[in-house]
Amino acid sequence: MTQPPAPKPIQRKPRSEYALIQLLPNMLTVAAICAGLTAIRFGVQGNYLNAVQLILLSCVLDGIDGRLARILRADSAMGAELDSLADFLNFGVAPPLLIYYWALQDAPRLGWLSVLVFAVCCVVRLARFNVSTHAGDPKDVAAYFTGVPSPAGAMLVMLPMYLSFAFDDAQLLPDLVLCLYMAGIGLLLISRIPTWSFKTTKVSRENVKYFLVAFAFVAAALMNYAWLTLIALCLGYVATVVWALVTQPRKG
């Protein structure tokens, strides 16, 4: 009597392992998400100063995690999706909610409408960027973005708060003006206006020393005159957008 054939052993796929340092970019992204959520909590509690600082911290982390992933060759599809979700939370949800709690609760309907407009514009901006990136659109590696990037939009939309923190006696903008300002920044996110991409900017060897001196100056100004420096940086960025609008053709 023939014996039935022995069952074949189950082939197990080799377990993938990651070095801890390769997880560092995703850890920074998770830290940015925690910063954004905590900023919302501080906004609800009325601790606006710390809330703004946490959103600014999330901007810094956003600028680091992607580049670090490429340096470590640890970029992945999951990391890209996690980064996009973090961007929406930190730049599309936390800043407008913070402004709403800070100044627009006296106009809840109009204020909430402006929050929704900004948030929807931000998520559309991120979706458009993700689609063009997956499609390998060469325009995304050019010297100019299409529309204002979401981190820059978050920085700009909080400009009235910087002014209030820098000048203790500064009067808040009227609710209507603040709502229109927030919605206007949101529309800039989904506009076709070309905006300067710092990712592709290169510095010649001869000018590196001047760039480092300028960076040290800005860093020292941020540590000593944080809000005034942020105001200046926002106005400088607006100037680059206006310059690009004048000198560069709009992207279709």
Quick take:
The chain has 252 residues and is mainly α. The chain has helices at 24-45, 48-72, 77-103, 108-134, 150-157, 159-166, 175-189, 208-224, 226-247, and strands at 144-146, 194-196. It is built from nine helices and two strands; from the N terminus they run H-H-H-H-E-H-H-H-E-H-H.
Keywords:
252 residues, mainly alpha, 9 helices, Four Helix Bundle (Hemerythrin (Met), subunit A), 2% strand, two-stranded antiparallel sheet
Helical residue percent?
Answer: 55-70%
Tell me the name of the CATH class: Mainly Alpha
Shape: globular
The total strand number stands at 2
Strand content: under 5%
CATH-level-4 superfamily name: CDP-alcohol phosphotransferase transmembrane (TM) domain
In CATH terms, what is the architecture?
Up-down Bundle
CATH topology: Four Helix Bundle (Hemerythrin (Met), subunit A)
Spell the H/E element sequence: HHHHEHHHEHH
Rg value:
22 Å
The assigned structural class equals: mainly alpha
- Per DSSP, the total helix count is 9
Overall average pLDDT: 84
What's the number of structural domains? 1
Strand order of the largest sheet: 1-2
Low-confidence stretches are: none
Give the termini separation: 77 Å
Largest sheet: 2 strands, antiparallel
